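User: Can you recover a sequence for this backbone? Please restate the input before giving your answer.

Assistant: Of course. Working from this structure:
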C-alpha cells in the first residue's frame, strides 16, 4: 500500500488548439467526441506537474506540441477551490472560448495492488 496523488482530467475541447482547428471544427460533423476524462497518477500536486500531464495526454490524442505552449492555468468564476483549469492564451483579438481546455481535480489516494482508493478527510468533533 502506498500514498499517491491522482488527477481526474476532463478535456473539454481536445483537438481544437491548432490554427484553423477552432471555431466550428470538423469533428462536430464527423461525430468524434472531443470531451474525454482520464484519471492519472502524478508525481506531485503542483500546477506545473498537472499542466505537464495535460500536455502529455493532449499530444497522445493528436494535439501538436507547439500549440500546447499557449496553455496556462486559469481560475474561472465559481470554480471549485480544489480544482485547476487550463485555458489557452489567444493572440487573436476578439477570439475566445467559453469553456476551458481542461479541468482538473487533484486528490490523494491509496494504491493497493494496482487499485486506487480515494482519501477524504473527516473532521472529528469533540463532545
Amino acid at each position: 500500500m502506498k500514498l499517491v496523488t491522482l488527477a481526474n482530467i476532463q478535456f473539454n475541447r481536445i483537438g481544437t488548439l491548432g490554427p484553423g482547428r477552432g471555431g466550428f471544427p470538423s469533428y462536430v460533423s464527423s461525430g468524434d467526441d472531443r470531451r474525454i476524462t482520464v484519471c492519472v497518477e502524478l508525481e506531485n500536486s503542483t500546477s506545473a506537474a498537472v499542466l505537464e500531464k495535460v500536455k502529455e495526454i493532449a499530444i497522445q490524442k493528436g494535439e501538436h506540441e507547439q500549440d500546447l505552449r499557449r496553455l496556462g492555468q486559469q481560475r474561472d468564476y465559481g470554480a471549485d477551490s480544489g480544482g485547476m483549469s487550463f485555458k489557452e492564451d489567444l493572440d487573436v483579438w476578439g477570439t475566445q472560448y467559453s469553456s476551458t481546455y481542461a479541468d482538473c481535480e487533484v486528490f490523494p489516494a491509496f494504491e493497493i495492488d494496482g487499485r486506487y482508493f480515494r482519501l477524504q478527510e473527516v473532521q472529528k468533533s469533540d463532545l
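That completes the design. The first helix runs from residue 27 to 30.
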